[in-house]
Amino acid sequence: xxxxxxxxxxxxxxxxxxxxxxxxxxxxxxxxxxxxxxxxxxxxxxxxxxxxxxxxxxxxxxxxxxxxxxxxxxxxxxxxxxxxxxxxxxxxxxxxxxxxxxxxxxxxxxxxxxxxxxxxxxxxxxxxxxxxxxxxxxxxxxxxxxxxxxxxxxxxxxxxxxxxxxxxxxxxxxxxxxxxxxxxxxxxxxxxxx
Length: 194
What we know:
It contains eight helices and five strands. It is of the alpha/beta class. The chain has a single domain (about 5-194), classed as 3-Layer(aba) Sandwich (Rossmann fold), CATH 3.40.50.300. It has a five-stranded parallel β-sheet, sandwiched between helices. Helix 2 (about 30-40) crosses helix 3, helix 4 runs parallel beside helix 5 (about 90-105) and helix 6 (about 120-135) packs across helix 7 (about 145-170). The longest helix is centred in the C-terminal third of the chain and has 24 residues, at about 145-170.
């Protein structure tokens, strides 16, 4: 069983790498972005609360995200292993996750932090929005430069506290997310072999 956290700003490649890891290891992929978008689309009470935050580029309140993640982890197969994509983002979320995983008997193996310059993020998010429009699909509400900058600033502030939390536990691994998809994949494979 392999239990991972993927941390990084929007557009860093977490979702792409999570798909590869799921394919290789059969892990349960829990993307907080997907959980939030699904809750927003379904207009659940948590979804309505999340929408206000996502549309303005601020982090969704901890209690909303923790509730959604707890629901999903509890629904998974105990020995399957998982990838948490974009969660936790705050020390409060990390502490709540640690308690939950302790109850489930499923400790984390690695926390992989995707390091990437904001200029490249802006290019990637702009390209993702263009591809959505070309396919006739509405772009994500957070796929615009102004919202991206706010989300990256929020991410950096949160990560400044979160990185030491996981570094102290000897779980933090840093990848150069400016590399191409295969290059990032190779870096992650090296961590998992250790």
